[in-house]
Amino acid sequence: MVEPAWTPKRGRPAVLSREAIVDAALAEGLDTLTMTALARRLGVVKSSLYRWVAGREEVLGLVGDVVVERVLPVEPGATDWRDWFADLASRMRREFLAVPGYAARIAAPHAHHSDAHERLLATVRTRLEEGGLAPREAEDTRRIVLTAVVGWVAAESHWTGHGDAVEPRADSDELFDRFVRSLLRAMPADPAA
Fold this sequence. Notes:
Strand content: under 5%
Number of strands: 0
Low-confidence stretches: 162-166
CATH superfamily of the domain at 68-185: Tetracycline Repressor, domain 2
Mean pLDDT: 84
Structural class: mainly alpha
CATH architecture of the domain at 68-185: Orthogonal Bundle
Number of helices: 9
């Protein structure tokens, strides 16, 4: 028996996809993200979102995957590990500030640790070990610097995100770079340090 060929359904093409949901969530920002707001932004009814995602937490996880993918560094190159880490920190700051509420979300304890997040952590550890740090020092350095960067960016997003908060400084990029480089100078250069 020959099966009939598949033919597309008539009518409107689907307007939803996981990618469209993530794009809309990125545009909405995590500070104000609700499933209702997301549906409104996409021009669909709220219940249709649940065909694609289980709920707000899954959307937040998908957004996190996209943000981390944007931050993931390319091949390390020949630069000093401190310069490499400072560049990574700047990319993190730029991408995290681009999504309102993201830095505050990851600064708070949460259960979602995606493959992208794990790849970022592994990439940092590997680069630090290649730079001469012992595995334990690489792990400690990664933890200290990433925690400090996320905390800084979460605070900075609060400063710039509220009308009654502190106005951003004109030299905030330079100030952040000084912060990161000071932190990196305090880290051990090798196991004997």
